[in-house]
From TrEMBL:
SUPFAM superfamilies: Acyl-CoA N-acyltransferases (Nat)
Region (Disordered) residue spans: 82-105
Domain N-acetyltransferase: 14-220
Pfam family, one: Acetyltransf_7
Official protein name in the record: Acyl-CoA N-acyltransferase
CDD domains to which the protein is assigned, alphabetical: NAT_SF (cd04301)
UniProt xrefs under PROSITE patterns: GNAT
InterPro entries: Acyl_CoA_acyltransferase, GNAT_dom, MshD_Acetyltransferase
Length: 227
């Protein structure tokens, strides 16, 4: 599938914050819609031809949110006086949560459009990037690029530029277009592959040759993804 990038449209302002347990019920359907089922086919990140069923459940999301070595980052669009004042896309405060005065899981006037997870890897100067999802109807409009840049900045700010040097991720090997998208943002294949947990998806895989390729980016060399 080709990413549609015809007439460029103005990018909407994004408002970022760190997820709390109250957000789990919003995050799960967003992730599901980006990867599985017919709705995911509206975007280009769909895995509907590879896997069926839930990509992650509420318990899995809560585990990520409550892990002290990780953060689930949320991106909202819309306009809200509190969010506009405290959390603008133009100033991400070097990746820190700029909306910590807003405790509502879906503030009035804002819509959740993207999420991701960053997690420090034990004993390493690296972090893992995952659970990356953008609403399928909004994909191709720059939200994912800006959310990735925010996640990179968050790692450097929250854990220190001298602590986390690299950000790594795993991508199913068949996702050539998605891998190329990451490569354009400074990520490189390490040459490592990891097995796909076929037993854990309980028959949800639609093919039996799936595995992951590992990508990483040296944040100390490349800095953050271009916004």
């Amino acid at each position: 599938m080709t990413i549609k990038n015809s007439d460029p449209k103005p990018e909407p302002p994004l408002h970022f914050r760190v997820a709390t347990p109250a957000d789990a019920g919003l995050i799960q359907p967003l992730v599901q819609s980006a990867y599985r089922g017919d709705e995911s086919r509206q975007g280009w990140t769909t895995e509907a031809d590879l896997l069926k069923g839930n990509r992650i459940n509420i318990a899995g999301i809560l585990a990520k949110i409550t892990n002290p070595d990780s953060a689930v980052l949320l991106a909202f669009t819309g306009s809200s006086p509190a969010a506009t004042k405290n959390n603008s896309d133009a100033n991400t405060n070097n990746g820190n949560d700029n909306n910590n005065n807003n405790n509502n899981n879906n503030p009035d006037g804002l819509a959740l459009v993207g999420c991701c997870e960053v997690a420090r890897l034990p004993g390493e100067s690296s972090a893992y990037f995952g659970m990356f999802a953008v609403s399928p109807r909004l994909q191709g409009g720059g939200i994912g690029r800006r959310l990735l840049a925010h996640a990179e900045a968050y790692c450097r700010a929250a854990w220190g530029p001298g602590t986390v040097h690299k950000l790594e991720m795993t991508v199913i090997w068949t996702r050539a277009e998605l891998i190329a998208w990451y490569e354009r943002r400074g990520y490189r294949r390490t040459g490592e592959t990891r097995p796909f947990p076929l037993a854990e998806v309980d028959g949800a895989a639609l093919r039996d040759d799936l595995y992951f390729v590992v990508l990483e980016k040296d944040l100390s060399i490349y800095g953050t993804a271009p916004i």
